[in-house]
Amino acid sequence: VRTVKVPLAERSYDILIGPQLLKDLPKYCQSLQLGTRCSIITDSHVGPRYADDLKSSLHQAGYKPDVVTVRAGEKSKGIRTVDYCYDALSLHHLERRSFVIALGGGVVGDLAGFVAATYLRGIPFIQVPTTLLSQVDSSVGGKTGINLRAGKNLVGAFYQPRLVVCDSGTLRTLPRREYVAGIAEVIKYGIIYDASFFNYVEKNMPKILKRDPKILAFVVARCCEIKSEVVGQDETESGTRAILNFGHTIGHAIEAISGYGRYLHGEAISIGQVLATRLSKEVKGLAESDVSRITKVFAAAGLPTKAHISAPMQKRLFDAMRHDKKVSDGEIKFVLAKKIGAVEYGVKVPEETISQLLNS
Amino acid sequence: VRTVKVPLAERSYDILIGPQLLKDLPKYCQSLQLGTRCSIITDSHVGPRYADDLKSSLHQAGYKPDVVTVRAGEKSKGIRTVDYCYDALSLHHLERRSFVIALGGGVVGDLAGFVAATYLRGIPFIQVPTTLLSQVDSSVGGKTGINLRAGKNLVGAFYQPRLVVCDSGTLRTLPRREYVAGIAEVIKYGIIYDASFFNYVEKNMPKILKRDPKILAFVVARCCEIKSEVVGQDETESGTRAILNFGHTIGHAIEAISGYGRYLHGEAISIGQVLATRLSKEVKGLAESDVSRITKVFAAAGLPTKAHISAPMQKRLFDAMRHDKKVSDGEIKFVLAKKIGAVEYGVKVPEETISQLLNS
């Protein structure tokens, strides 16, 4: 078991990473001194595979678990599902020391995290991310989010889990497309923070694609460490933390205009990162060799690196970017790379520069 | 203008109290260095009276205000109205530095506070409480709350406003019943914290009922000071702050079983406080003379001091109390008075004792 400590004063917590950790979850819960009642929030893909076993092992350990299953997919990250979960929690009589377990990918983590952050003004919550994307991304940082008709993650809370358990075994059964989408975030950590990790990922891509357990454990742990360092410097996203949004301003907009669900999040931010890389060359003088390495590593993973965006769609893309949370008084700002491993945030880019890039 | 400072480190804020402060709101906003866009969340009672003037004065000061009006009444403290507000905020393109102004009573404050706490994971928010209850209670403490079918305030967030403006002028136009309901919280501060303030309220009740401006300004400021001291000691309600719930465990349950809306919150907690006072005599040996003074001061304000609760309703009352957020692993705990001005929290009371009291 690898442990990554996320140091946030009295809200510090551990991320445990390793194979077959799920069966030991009740043991880990016991060290946290929580109440006995708990609700496992999961979805219709992950629930049938893992929820029953988890429920009975919790039950055997003296807990009173309940399983709340929501429909798999991004549509469950909405107010209606939040309301459904609130009702389920109140029917199970959760109290202030009771806890919520998020068992699933990013959607379940964001949803369950928001529900835990707001139910009784906040009850403890444990994250069990079961996808590569959620293990390397949403398990660190305490960001929870809900979509509105107007955009993704427009509603949410900063709320830290009490524990994160990344069971590498759950990654082996992921559909290939979803697994590959997670690699987009893995690559991001190399670009924004750690050139040698970028080299490692570049070199070991075939093994990563084969889901080699040793490589996976290292990769997930290193990503969590990087995210934890970045978040530790800036918990509420007023500064440095913005670098984690590399590729996301365009990526989110692409998701929004394509209709949620056409691209997986990882696919959209793969395209977003490649576009941000090309903008970096224009605006920050990123070397062409770095542009090429970055583009190639996304392609080697099997991720999309471009999208054809027609003129009317471009207008909608800009509208969506202006609507992004990261916008301040109407100006669109980007995270851009100076070289692999070093980026700068808050860079204003004229809309013409972006248009030219999209049309080239 | 009286100023009460609420000291919460980097989240400290001021409460300004005085007549006709509403017209100076844009001036106060300017000192906070917020963005230009703002949404005034108000209700169908308060909005028509004050929102247009506020909107134009903000506009003249260079802000881009929008008015969001919800139906007056407790029913607006639900998920559906939260969703409606989210949509209104996104249509008005609020950004991270934009702000929300809560213009109205406790319902509007709780609703707008929750919306501000969760929109874009939290944007600045200014409270303009226009009722006595909200000026002395919900303007301090950073508690926001939303009702579920299963109970009041089951969902919410701890979120501090950036500024609170209590315009005493808005109290003069309150319906008498609503004004009187607010006095229940005023009396509470005397019982739980300050015997001499209790004496003051007891002696000056006729002037308080006449809404004498000088007396009102002192009363509101003193209540805010007391609440601020209590909250400052315990921001997230893990300890001392519980004393603010004197009378609320029973009061909330009475509201729940009567159907929200039959009793105003202040009326329900008036009954709740009198019952808690009588429990205090049984369990903590509170002097009969104190029981009598407390009961008389609520009666002098014109507040209800008892409710007839039939046997089947008692069962529902206990169910509702068990469902209260303040319950921990199924045990009902009370705040009880040892004498006027000094209470104890976390006191377990056997259900039989409560039943006997209700039947006596």
SSE-based structural type of chain A: alpha/beta
**Oligomeric description of these chains:** homodimer
Radius of gyration of chain A: 20 Å
Quick one: overall form of chain A? globular
Largest sheet of chain A: 7 strands, mixed
| Chain pair forming the biggest interface | A-B, 40 and 40 residues
Calculate the mean pLDDT score of chain A and round it: 92
Q: How many runs of DSSP E, i.e. beta strands of chain A?
A: 11
The helix fraction of chain A, in percent, is 40-55%
Q: How much β-strand is present in the residues of chain A?
A: 15-25%
Order of helices and strands of chain A: EEHEHEHEHEHEEEHHHHHHHHEEH
Poorly predicted tracts of residues of chain A: none
Spatial strand arrangement across the major sheet of chain A: 1-2-9-6-5-3-4
Number of helices of chain A: 14
Give a structural overview.
Two copies of one chain form a homodimer. By secondary structure, chain A is an alpha/beta fold. Helix content of chain A is 48%, strand content 19%. Chain A is built from 14 helices and eleven strands. Chain A has helices at residues 25-30, 47-60, 79-91, 106-118, 132-138, 176-193, 195-203, 205-209, 213-233, 248-257, 265-284, 288-301, 311-322, 351-359, and strands at 2-6, 13-18, 37-43, 64-70, 99-104, 125-129, 143-148, 151-158, 163-167, 333-339, 342-348. In chain A, the strands form three sheets. A seven-stranded mixed sheet of chain A has the order 1-2-9-6-5-3-4, sandwiched between helices. The first copy, chain A, has a two-stranded antiparallel sheet with strand order 7-8. Chain A has a two-stranded antiparallel ribbon with strand order 10-11. In chain A, α5 runs parallel beside α9 (213-233), α10 (248-257) packs across α13 (311-322) and α11 (265-284) runs antiparallel to α12. Chain A is globular, with a radius of gyration of 20 Å. The mean pLDDT of chain A is 92.
